[in-house]
Amino acid sequence: MSRRYDPERRQRIIDAAIRVVGEKGIAGLSHRSVAAEADVPLGSTTYHFATLDELLVAALRQANEGFAKVVAAHPALADPHADLAGELARVLGEWLGGDRTGVELEYELYLAALRRPALRPVAAEWAEGVADLLSRRTDAVTARALVALMDGICLQALLTDVPYDEGYAREVLARVIGREAGADRGGRR
Amino acid sequence: MSRRYDPERRQRIIDAAIRVVGEKGIAGLSHRSVAAEADVPLGSTTYHFATLDELLVAALRQANEGFAKVVAAHPALADPHADLAGELARVLGEWLGGDRTGVELEYELYLAALRRPALRPVAAEWAEGVADLLSRRTDAVTARALVALMDGICLQALLTDVPYDEGYAREVLARVIGREAGADRGGRR
DNA sequence: TGCCGTTGTGTACGCTCGTACACATGGGAT
DNA sequence: ATCCCATGTGTACGAGCGTACACAACGGCA
Questions:
Q1: How far apart are the first and last CA of chain A?
Q2: Which end of chain A is less congested by CB atoms within 10 angstroms, N or C?
């Protein structure tokens, strides 16, 4: 036990890394930049995270909790009587409605898994986690499809500058869910 | 007129850039690496593309045509009697079935728009183009939703190592399309 | 034919990067 | 009390980067 001087050093480095990625993107992340942001010497970052991939894994894992927190704040998602499509659309709206840098950050880390195999298990974990959560309301196939559609909707909102449209999201999510959910209220666009 | 020595120099640089991104990712793209790949001097790349963003825009624009080519090879997409969901699922299968580096490359460039505003119009153009194409078979809302869902399905196939499942894709795409398409044939799952 | 400006090339500068490695420090086992 | 080693720090090196800029080459115009 007892990390000698600074037991939270490692955590502070992760936090700093997330701030750096948020401000300058993954491209701007380096042992030096994160050391400066965390106000620790260069050697300290290389000591705790020998490679940048390790740091990214830790950062992604922590960033994922941002979305999880929004989800957790919506207990209605687990209520079998609630309008699932509407709840999901609202969750996305809240998440996307937060400051853009936070959302960009989480997505950038998530998408970085495309090229960095080290991140892929973490990204997969996340997708699986959300799918599992949804599986309590629908079958596995539908759950996976919902995750895919939500991913696609977010992507389009972020890549193009078309603003998020909650009504649209609710409508198409409801189509994927199919008949069982109470998707009768609310307009067809 | 007359580019003096090498009128195709610019195009060869773009091709080289695409190869570099395919092999080493955007992170590995530099004026030098692309110069080496294209077998032209360093100054030549900086002359034709003052900034890397310019080069990426050209590369993304060209890479987009890869998907467009697959789409063009499926005239059934425009046939109002064909099974739209099935056709789309098949197109995705063909595209994802090609060599992974090509697909990764197109997606990496596409996703890079998240952080590089210069790429955003090009990415938006692409999404809009596909949506327009689909609009000839359905309404605008459904078309957008289909693009989103296809994006999400591809993303999951690429980010996690779950292989692409054409039957699954067809099923959930059909749900988004709704009743009108001939989605009655073929099994639920 | 001879000049000129567009087009293309080579080199060098200053910067940031990952990495390595020798050195400090102090808690815990003896 | 002493020693050892996990933990933390500072510095230096070589590589690769974007950029700048002086210079070469040649087609079009006079």
A1: 59
A2: N
